[in-house]
Write a structure and sequence with these properties.
eight-stranded mixed sheet, 14 strands
Length: 519
């Protein structure tokens, strides 16, 4: 799942991309047309050396296929020789884990109340949080004008800020390449709603000065840079803590969870692979979601390896930090991709009463690499090879391609089959499929289906400044998506038909603006 999980309901991530300080492409970026999202008067150095640097996991136990020295060192790791088993060999499977959630799974709201989209959204963006956003944004606006900005600043009220949020949500419904097109009177781009709600210049001023933390306290925190007391996430903490608390409060997930890594990269770097290969900048978040509906249960923003002192590697520490039994309970099943999967992680999760299943990389430390009776690229479709090490079963399967899955939940093979086209038949034929591979692929499919119900991920391509504004848009995305999931769950509990994701966003925008979009 990992990066494939980026197809989850994400409404708002791409028009407000971050500023980057990349020497190789600096002049090229400056020559591009400014879309008006960059504050011309800002002189803040708040890239903060981009502590959201996207780097390889420093403790990841993998080797480069092109690095012969590393490969030889990895091959020298002593493993007892063993022979891979096949589907003809019986596997009893691990002892099942007791499912002990901290609360009853499902929505924890008043079932008798009829919640509107705006009421559900305000669970994650409450009025006191928006009041704090207005106060800090107004402070930042006054500071910007005092430094000589070429525009006048008018204080933002709470109603203005909710309209500002509504415009961002509306941009997901009407996708234009340039921000100016949303206020254009041109026949091709005529879009009357934003200009009736808020002048474009006012929208830009709010975004230029958007601030989640107190600007005066920012100065004090920045003075501590390089010391243990410096908080790298200080600029996003007030809103991040509010959204995170709401995520944990109003919904208890069902048993199957997905662990994902979400990366938000500047669009300019996405187009310039040579730059990414040398200096990777972006915003990285680790997220646990309910795999049945995409609800974000818990998340953390990566702020450097110093935040994970255990030294077991970023992929290990990020998962362990998100699986807090006090909030979740125990007995949950976690599904993840090869970035996270490792024998140590799965064994430690099993010891903490969490099952895990995910694709694995053979080059990870502790993963079996025997060649005896192993799966090869020439193995026929449906071939299964497996071996068990304590509670962990390692399975290799030849489907459309080779798939390697590790699990502490399932037996190696339980008689399951899937339909595939084979060369010797004119129609799809059933072929054996190991239980871990079947469940893992099924969870991936669930996530993809959730993503298909959205129209709101890739719509914001306009350049942004400041990394914390990208974080703001991502937090807004989590709030809107979770509000929609709560709506669906409430409707299902009352056995009523729920709105589609697009209809939900339309109604939310109407309520944020106080107008009707319907003709």
């Amino acid at each position: 799942m990992g990066e494939s999980m980026n197809n989850m309901p994400n409404i708002l991530l791409a028009p407000f991309e971050m500023d980057v300080d990349v020497e190789e492409s600096e002049s090229e970026l400056e020559s591009e047309t400014d879309d008006g999202m960059s504050d011309p008067s800002s002189d803040e150095n708040d890239d903060v050396e981009m502590h959201f640097l996207l780097r390889l996991d420093p403790a990841e136990d993998v080797y480069d296929d092109n690095d012969d020295g590393a490969k030889r060192r990895c091959q020298r790791t002593k493993q007892q020789p063993f022979k891979w088993k096949s589907e003809l060999d019986e596997d009893a499977g691990p002892a099942p884990l007791d499912f002990l959630p901290a609360r009853e799974p499902g929505v924890h709201l008043n079932a008798d109340e009829d919640y509107t989209p705006l009421q559900l959204f305000k669970l994650f963006f409450p009025e006191d949080a928006v009041e704090t956003l207005c106060r800090n944004t107004n402070k930042q606006g006054a500071r910007t004008v005092a430094r000589g900005a070429r525009y006048e600043w008018e204080d933002v009220e709470m109603a203005d800020f909710y309209k500002f949020i509504g415009i961002i949500c509306f941009m997901s419904l009407r996708e234009f390449k340039d921000l100016n097109d949303y206020w254009s009177r041109d026949y091709l781009f005529n879009c009357p709603y934003p200009r009736l709600i808020m002048a474009m210049e006012k929208f830009r001023k709010i975004f230029w000065n958007l601030h989640m933390s107190d600007p005066d306290e920012d100065v004090e925190n920045d003075a501590k840079t390089g010391t243990p007391s410096h908080d790298k996430l200080f600029r996003v903490k007030p809103l991040m803590d509010t959204v995170l608390t709401a995520c944990k409060t109003f919904y208890q997930p069902r048993r199957n969870l997905s662990v994902e890594e979400r990366r938000v990269l500047p669009e300019e770097l996405t187009r310039r692979r040579r730059v990414i290969e040398t200096r990777r900048f972006g915003l990285k978040m680790f997220v646990i979601t309910d795999s049945t509906n995409g609800y974000t249960v818990n998340f953390s923003v990566y702020a450097g390896k110093s935040e994970f002192p255990d030294g077991h590697g970023l992929s290990y520490d990020s998962v362990m930090s998100l699986t807090n039994q006090g909030n979740l309970g125990s007995g949950y099943h976690l599904y993840m991709d090869g970035y996270f999967t490792s024998p140590k992680l799965f064994n430690d999760l099993y010891a903490a009463n969490f099952g895990a299943c995910g694709e694995y990389r053979e080059s990870r430390k502790g993963c079996p690499r025997s060649k005896l009776n192993a799966l090869t690229r020439n193995s026929p479709m449906g071939t299964i090879r497996w071996t068990r090490q304590g509670p962990l079963v390692y399975v290799k399967w030849m489907g459309k391609g080779r798939l390697s899955v590790c699990s502490s939940i399932h037996p190696a093979y339980a008689g399951d089959t899937v339909l595939r086209r084979v060369a010797s038949a004119s129609s799809k034929q059933p072929i054996p499929c190991p239980k871990p591979a079947l469940e893992y692929k099924g969870r991936c499919k669930d996530v993809e289906n959730i993503g298909d119900n959205t129209v709101l991920y890739d719509i914001m391509r306009h350049k942004s400044v400041k990394w914390y504004k990208t974080a703001f848009v991502h937090l807004l995305d989590i709030a809107v998506t979770n509000a929609f999931v709560l709506h669906k769950e409430l409707m299902q509990s009352m056995r009523e038909e729920s709105m589609s994701y697009t209809d939900f966003i339309e109604e939310l925008v109407e309520q944020l603006w106080g107008v009707s979009l319907r003709v």
